[in-house]
Amino acid sequence: MSERFAFIYSSRFDGYSYGSEHPFKVQRYRLTYELIRELGLLDGSGIEMVETPQAPEAAPGCFHRQSYLDTLKEFSREDHPRANFIYGLGDVENPVFKGMYEWSLLSCGGTMEAVRQVVDGGCRAAFSMAGGHHHAHAARASGFSYLNDAVIAIQGLLERGLRVAYVDIDAHHGDGVQEAFYRSDRVLTISLHESGRDFFPHTGFCNELGEGRGYGYSVNVPFRRHADDLIFEQAFRRIVLPLLEAFSPDVLVTQMGVDTLRSDPLSRLEFTTGAIEFATRAFLTTGLPWAAIGGGGYDKCNVARCWALLWSVMTGQAVPERLPPGFCAAARALGFAGELLRDPPRLARPDDYASAQEALERNLAFLERKLFPLHGISGRVAL
Questions:
Q1: Could you tell me which residue ranges the Histone deacetylase domain spans (predicted)?
Q2: What is the mean pLDDT of the chain?
Q3: SS3 at position 28
Q4: For the chain, what are the domain ranges?
């Protein structure tokens, strides 16, 4: 019997907008879907297209404070300007718009459905690209995130007695998810991101290792600006893979933000699509039930290319090197002049690479020294 994979999507995404000037463009989901469809990646054996459900009204209450949820609902009813800065609502970063609560429930429902597909639905892996709002806190919107879909979905798994590994490869630290499970030894959170020393959300340093029973289960690998694919792969092989093997979770949840690409307007990393393909293959080869969710990415065409490649690798389907004509036409209208699905290999400038490598070595040595004994991992893992 062939393996099954679930692609979770809805045309209802198109009904929401953060505003024409906001960097978070909901239309990137439609663009990604159209590219995946034009590449024929939804037609293979074992591929299931699943309509994104809205999360149950009660679901966010497992993490978010009720007074915050009540304010989200109230502000969501109308389109005129509202603000509550205690809850992080109404500024440039987290605008108030009509339907924002319903949009957030839809995003959350997609992540919950991805988890359900791999835990109860018999799927090898599932992808819900509208998830990954990892900055939302219990009572505060942050970083374009209103409800923390990953936390809500993981809480549901914990209630069933399951152990979860959460790996976040977005350019920004997964601070909201880390905060939710900082004192838990049942969730291993790993975030690989641009250093928060001078970058939002200004957290995610190596010494944030958890507290109490959770000590050693919060893992952060910050990258110096201009880190490239080689830097990423070293960190992944030396930290992520051995810790996943040692922790041996029941379920793997990954946040697949693609704002790490060198041409993304909001980060200073220099990854290519190759880093996304590498991570996807690595997650797949763990053999764990795997729910992948979206995340950052502020160049719409880059997002579409990366997540199409993610889906092709996840499902084992070959893709051409050149973008299909329909997507090329749509991309040109958005100012994207490229014609290749994959980025050509590219390394950082030698001086930038040397600085990033030096910082990486310090961070990895610290993490190996602090974490490996706690998880029963002996010695440095060979590259």
A1: 22-313
A2: 96
A3: helix
A4: 5-41+121-129+159-371
Euclidean distance between CA atoms 206 and 192, whole angstroms: 10
- The mean per-residue pLDDT over the stretch 264-269 comes to 97
Arithmetic mean of pLDDT, 182-188: 98
In the predicted model, is pLDDT for residue 35 greater than 80?
yes
Q: How far apart are CA 89 and CA 212, in angstroms?
A: 32
pLDDT value, residue 380? 58
Distance CA(98)–CA(75), nearest Å, equals 8
Q: 258 and 292 in contact (C-beta within 8 Å)? A: no
State how far the Cα of 383 lies from the Cα of 380, in Å rounded to an integer: 9
Q: How far apart are CA 51 and CA 117, in angstroms?
A: 12
How confident is the model at residue 382, as a pLDDT? 38
Q: Do 288 and 124 touch, CB atoms closer than 8 A?
A: no
Tell how strand 5-9 and strand 187-194 pair up. Answer: unpaired
The phi and psi torsions of 269 (rounded to 5 degrees) equal: -85, 165
135 is catalytic: yes
Q: Which one, of 364, 218, 197, lies nearest residue 268 by Cα?
A: 197
For residue 140 the two structure tokens come to: 């505060």
DSSP string, 70-114: HHHHHHHT--S---BGGGTBSSSSS---TTHHHHHHHHHHHHHHH
Q: What does the pLDDT look like over 278-302, one tens digit per residue?
A: 999 999 999 999 999 999 999 999 9
Q: With CA atoms as reference, report the closest residue to 289 among 77, 3, 33, 40.
A: 3
Annotated catalytic residue: which of 64, 133, 135, 193?
135
**According to the CATH classification, is domain 5-41+121-129+159-371 in 3.40.800.20?**
yes
Q: What is the mean pLDDT of residues 194-221?
A: 98
SS3 content of the chain, % helix, strand, coil (to 5): 40, 15, 45
Q: Which two tokens stand for residue 343?
A: 């980025």
Collect all residues with Cβ–Cβ distance below 8 Å to 18 and sequence separation of at least 6.
Answer: 24, 25, 26, 95, 97, 144
